[in-house]
Every structure is written in C-alpha cells, then in structure tokens.
Fold:
Amino acid sequence: MSDEPPYEVITGSAEAGILFICDHASNRIPRRLAGLGIDPAALTQHVAWDIGAGALTRALAAHLAAPAVLSTASRLVIDCNRAPGHATSIPADSHGVAIPGNAGLGPVERLQREADWFRPYHDRIEQELRVLEVAGRLPLLVSIHSFTPVLSGPPRPWHVGVLSDRDRGTADEFLGLLRALPGMVIGDNEPYSGKHPEGYSCQTHGDGQRRRNVLFEVRQDLLGSEAEIQTWAGRLAAVLRDGVQHFAAARAPAYNAATAPRVGQAGASTMDRSEEHTS
Structure:
C-alpha cells in the first residue's frame, strides 16, 4: 500500500462544466521507495515533475470554481500520462538522470506501483467526469502541463502549447481564442505532440469516451512566481469560459463518433517525435 494519498482532489461546481487534471503536479517520492536512489537535487528539476503546473491547476480551479484531480507522486515513480508498460512509464533513466530505484524492476513491483498510484488517480478522474455527466453537463477535460524553455535544442518560443489527438475541434477552438491574445506565441501540438500513444490521460478519459478534451502546456519560466501563476490562470480561465459557452450552445460532440478512429485502430494517430519525453 502507498504511504501517501495517490491524488489530490479539489471540489468544484458542476456548473463550470470542466474537470482539470494534472498528471505531473508533484515531485514526491513515497517514503518506502527510499528516494529511488537519486540525488535529491534532481527532484527540483523537470525530470521529476512539471514545475508550476500543480499551482496553475489549483489557481484555475479556484478561478472557475471547477473540480480538479492532481497526481501526488513524481512521474519518476510512475508516469500517470503513460500507459502501463510504455517505455517511459517507470523510467530507469530520464534525460541523463539515472534512477537506480527503477532499474531492473520486476513485474510484481511494476504492478504494485500501478495499483498504488496510477489506477487510483485515473479511477478518480473517471469518477469526477461521471459526476459532471450525471449533473447534465457535457464535461470538458482540461489537462495542465508545463515545459522547459530549452530542451536539447534551440529556445522554445511558445508561451503555451495546445495539444490534442483526435479531438481537433476542441483544440482548434482554443487555438483561435489564444491566438487572438496580443503578443502570444501559441503552439499547435508544440513543443510536444498530443497524439497517440503519448497522451494517455486525455486519450483515455477524453477521446476514448467521446468527451471534449484539451491539454495546455505552459512554459515554465512564465510560472516562476505566484503573481505569474495568477496571471496565467486568469488568462486561461477567460479563454476556457468562452470555449465552454460556445460548446454548450452548440451541444455538439467533440468529433464525429462514426468516423473517428479509436486508439490502436488502423488510421489512429501516432506520435510525431517518439524520442521526446512529453511534459
């Protein structure tokens, strides 16, 4: 059993029509894993979590009085945005940082991590989405991540990226709203791709259930202070309000359920840059 709760829940109103999730909100390592044998300094870095993403998720939930579910374990324990068995689900190395506690991990240990951290988090996401549906809402699933200003290449110019796979209609709505903001550089599936198989959470609870979904990646140097986090929360909250109002008026599904390929079917999307590690 885990020695810490596997997720944090923020209660909110169904009227918001949104559930926020944050797969990489925490850099915590459960005590029984003895720090995974890594240098504690690594836990302050992007390899361990999405810096600022948890705080931004909480601020957004407060702005919109919306519910949220946040993971409380570092992605180095198990990545909640990867399918179990994926090469980066429980990495033995991440961007040159060795993780001895993950090296040579057997199937029993992997299943235990999944049972302790991964499954409870995703079960709670599904539970919260169904609460919204029972209340008569067509929920929008919003996943919050952050990305480094530089990663193995030139500086990344985007202020925020809008990631998606099969639900292009929702992504296009928010791309249009964000690009209307002055001075913003907005990425479309940048700096990462949201396409299968990398974006597990949105694909499972969004695309896989015909629910609207979108993933926002905000550059980490824009989230360096509480004031900056509140600024971004206000900015994204306004965009989300406009989008939700538009979707509610349309009462349209996220995409054509008769023609959209299911994950794993022929024609389903694959990641554009499989060597990269999504935030």
